[in-house]
Amino acid sequence: MEDEIRTVLSEELGDLATFGAEIPERYRRDWLSEQAVTPIAVIRPRTTEDVSRALRLCSRLGISVVPQGGMTGLVGGAQPVAGGVALSLDRMTAIEEIDEVMATVTVEAGATLGDVQRACEQAGLFLAVDLGARDSCQVGGVISTNAGGNRVIRYGMTRENVLGIEAVLSDGTIVTSLNKLLKNNAGYDLKQLLIGSEGTLGVVTRAVLRLHAQPQSFCSAFCGCADFAGVIGLLKAARSTLGAALTSFEVMWPSFYDFMCDGLPELRRSLAGRHGVYVLIEASGPAGQARQSLEDLLAAEIDAGHIADAVLPKSERETTELWAVRESVSEYGRLMGPLTGFDIGIPTGEAGAFVAEIEAALARHWPDVHALSYGHIGDSNLHLVVNVPSAGAHQPHDALCDLVFEAVSRYGGTISAEHGIGTIKRDYLHLTRSPSELEVMARLKRALDPRGILNPGKVLAPPHSATSQAVSPTVSPSATPPSGPA
Amino acid sequence: MEDEIRTVLSEELGDLATFGAEIPERYRRDWLSEQAVTPIAVIRPRTTEDVSRALRLCSRLGISVVPQGGMTGLVGGAQPVAGGVALSLDRMTAIEEIDEVMATVTVEAGATLGDVQRACEQAGLFLAVDLGARDSCQVGGVISTNAGGNRVIRYGMTRENVLGIEAVLSDGTIVTSLNKLLKNNAGYDLKQLLIGSEGTLGVVTRAVLRLHAQPQSFCSAFCGCADFAGVIGLLKAARSTLGAALTSFEVMWPSFYDFMCDGLPELRRSLAGRHGVYVLIEASGPAGQARQSLEDLLAAEIDAGHIADAVLPKSERETTELWAVRESVSEYGRLMGPLTGFDIGIPTGEAGAFVAEIEAALARHWPDVHALSYGHIGDSNLHLVVNVPSAGAHQPHDALCDLVFEAVSRYGGTISAEHGIGTIKRDYLHLTRSPSELEVMARLKRALDPRGILNPGKVLAPPHSATSQAVSPTVSPSATPPSGPA
Question: Is this complex's ipTM strictly greater than 0.90?
């Protein structure tokens, strides 16, 4: 059977398809998967028409297709499935057009985010979507996962930065909606379905991204608050004083801040004393103005009692030092064994209570646990990274997920704020989405991919969950992508 | 048959349903429809469960359901259909919760936009979605049409301001996704399908809207440019100098500006000479800062040759005078006979060429034509209002649409930037959406409304377009909603 399929693929797709042992390692696993899976073939189209031809063929053959971008996803979404093919967009890397008046860039899906950012910068424009894996991740994957990243509080998720999409459906239909207009209410906005559906409804082949003016200057401040109530007071004041100039509001609990500062000698504590919670704020604006706004904010917030101590860096070097702690997440490998990372959303006002509860619960179950809490709290996004040293290579991954996701559900949060569902969180999706929501998702999946060949088993369980297509990758929390969990 | 349906509706829905001559006029037509249509019944639910019960029943009976909000739509989307029922949300007006930390408001769909805006303002927060019909239009309608309005350049369309939705599908299934989190990537984002689908895929019953900090102060400036190249130069500079502080960039061609100033004695020309194009800019920011930024911008742009003359108002009264011309669109009734209004999107850089071409073409066909061009050009949204005096009550509506939409299609624009499709633009939708896009829309419609009972004939032609459910309202371009075309 597989031999027959190979013959057909080879005859119809020629050099677009590579088979068996010839398939390079990078198409066999994504960052978080322990075990490589060898698909029947990897197909690497050069054009949208190639993608269409490949999907039409796979649809006819009834074999599953896993779309692949830069393989930097954290939930197993691009992990190939045995008996199916992988469809990599990595040959479609063109940056087709930068329209300076519309402030848009039109790209092929396989272009890396970093390449697109740099091209826009050269044209004097700014692509606001940004994440640690910028030089590996591809625009198609960024769109399919509705990636979040560093600037959501100001510029929104990827969704808010996509104006147009071209995609190919599972039957090979090419749907081209390369809209550049900020306002277009002519019929259903089909791109919204493709964004964030993790390659289960269609394969994004091209996109129009919205650009902004280059921010003129940035200024950061670092604050120590006695407790989370102070953080909330500071957040409200920062929103109202800075408005759209507020570009980051990052919170670090001592569980994270002290652990990283104690463990990594190159990090420097920017405040003299110890505090209940730490906040890193960034503002942008015309030169001078951002710094002045931050100074005014800090003065008022110390008076209001929300901040115990604060520092405004006096040099580029001091700014880098402030951010170095927050960005030290890429050093987990040096400090901890295998870890389980959570990327959850918690209603902002409850994040303090949630962290206190979950850190205590984890310590009750696993007395030697390291549980590090930090995140984009301005966006309600909490990262929690857990390692149980005594468990060694056998981290209690499932038990940790059960405990954390139960609490997330109880707090009205989400099990994934930005990384997505993939296979890794699929069996927990019912904790944050209702049966009727799941049923509508399944209806949409059937409408756009009636044979169920597109990225089967990702996000939603396949209708017949015992098929070989539903094999989920074995997950190893030990591997971390180049940037670490954001 | 209708009698039997009445009996069943009356028995099962009790006082939620009103029949025949008892149905008040306001449920029989929306703003732009000449002819009232009396549906079998108007159903006015008090709760989401009522909506579910009504839809389940109509689905069983196979009768069509037209969701209704404030009836201020401009494309016939809420016009009842003969033989069906109207479902008005006007009893579900609760403003359920304002969450100051999350910066969200949770409302029922029948609340008017104005009531929600005022409630948020009292809580010290800001609902950015705003349009002229604010005190009549309802949140459900605003969401279903993805309304644009006055502040899109800074805060986005309605879509960008909706975090959660509760909706009822045609079979009565209640889908509750009242998410408050800015970041939530747990499965498909179902609300995106409901937003802007004009009540054809589900009935929105509740929503969570995103709020912002109150803008601190506003400052406007009015500029005369020699030509459209100057306008584009000014737009680029305004984006880069003001960034997120740029809240409006409104353009008025002489066809609009001179016609209104000459016709309405209460309007004052703020600049001494006549210019090729006029631009009204608004900036927001901390007090003093917005005005300073605008002053700097104008000085630089006069030097750059993009602006011929400009004025910064020195008082509240002068600011009101500047905006009075732009807002005089509500006075069309005093100046013109019946009109045909267009709400189109044109790639920004091409808007000047488009206006020149279309005004000339209209004058060639109808030598006495009034064709007024103006719009939210910062958002690529052009309004064009046409009256042919010699045609009297029989305006060449179809011929005007043919001529304008052909040009829109040729320029790569959209036939609707913000008002939507409804019935009025349905037969032109193929000019801006491809056959494969239309086919996918039809697939989604079948998936969520397999019996085709929800708002039939709106946006998409019904599968069997000869049924009585597909009757489009007779359109009279003479009626204008309270606010006029935005």
Answer: yes
In angstroms, rounded to a whole number, what is the distance separating the alpha carbons of residues B247 and B281?
8
Q: Considering only CB atoms, which chain A residues are within 8 Å of B286?
A: 241, 293
Q: What single letter denotes the amino acid at residue B457?
A: G
Instruction: Name residue, tokens 């979404």.
Output: A77
Beta-bridge partner residues of B43? B17, B87
What average pLDDT does this structure show over A164-187? 97
Collect all residues with Cβ–Cβ distance below 8 Å to B328 and sequence separation of at least 6: B260, B264, B267
At A23-37, the pLDDT tens digits run: 999 999 988 777 899
Residue at A113 is within a domain: yes
Q: How many domains does chain A have?
A: 4
* 3-state class (DSSP) for residue B395: coil
Compute the mean pLDDT over every residue in chain B, rounded to the nearest whole number: 93
Contacts of B459 in chain A (CB under 8 A): 187-188
pLDDT for res A72:
93
Count CA within 13 A, CB hemisphere, residue A395: 23
In this complex, is the C-beta atom of A56 within 8 Å of any C-beta atom belonging to chain B?
A: no
Quick one: B374 and B404 in the same domain?
A: yes
Q: Are strands A65-68 and A85-88 parallel, antiparallel or unpaired?
A: parallel
Question: CA of A417: how far to CAs of A346, A486, B8, B191, in Å?
Answer: 9, 11, 46, 16
Size of interface A-B (CB pairs under 8 A): 271
How many helices (H) and strands (E) would you count in chain A?
A: 14, 18
**B81 in helix, strand or coil?**
coil
- Residue B297 per-residue DSSP state: H
Q: What is the DSSP letter of A385?
A: E
CATH label of the domain that carries residue B24: 3.30.43.10
Sheet containing strand B17-19, strands side by side: B17-19, B41-43, B85-88, B65-68
Q: What pairs with residue B87 in β-bridges?
A: B43, B67
Residues 242-281 of A with CB under 8 A from B: 243-245
Check whether residue B209 and residue B223 sit in a common domain. Answer: no
Burial of B133 (0-12, 13-18, 19+ CB in 10 A): buried
Residue A478 located in a structural domain = no
Q: What is the mean pLDDT of residues B333-345?
A: 92
Cα Rg for chain A, rounded, in angstroms? 23
Sign of CA dihedral B233, B239, B240, B246: positive
Q: What is the pLDDT of residues B364-411, one digit of tens each?
A: 999 999 999 999 999 999 999 999 999 999 999 999 999 999 999 999
At CB < 8 A and 24+ separation, what contacts does A20-24 make? A23/A86
- Are A170 and A61 in contact by the 8 Å Cβ rule? The answer is no
CA B455/CA B469 separation, integer angstroms: 9
Taking only residues 224 to 243 of chain B, the set having a beta carbon closer than 8 angstroms to any beta carbon of chain A reads 232, 235-236, 239-241, 243
Interface contact B97, partner A, CB < 8 A: no
Are B59 and B8 contained in the same domain? yes
Q: Is the pLDDT of residue A485 over 80?
A: no
Chain A neighbors of B157, CB-CB under 8 A: 182-183, 185
Q: Residue B253 falls within a domain, yes or no?
A: yes
How many angstroms separate the CA atoms of B417 and A36, rounded?
48
The answer to whether residues A89 and A110 touch, using CB atoms and an 8 Å cutoff, is yes
Residues belonging to chain A: 486
Q: pLDDT tens-digit profile of B267-281?
A: 999 999 999 999 999
CATH number of the domain to which A399 belongs: 3.30.70.2740
The answer on B341 and B265 residing in a single domain is: no
Return all residues near B83 (Cβ < 8 A) that are at least 6 apart: B2, B39, B40, B63, B64, B468, B469
Task: Kindly state the tokens that stand for A461.
Answer: 């369980």
Q: Going edge to edge, which strands form the sheet with A41-43?
A: A17-19, A41-43, A85-88, A65-68
Instruction: Provide the token pair at B303.
Output: 């030097």
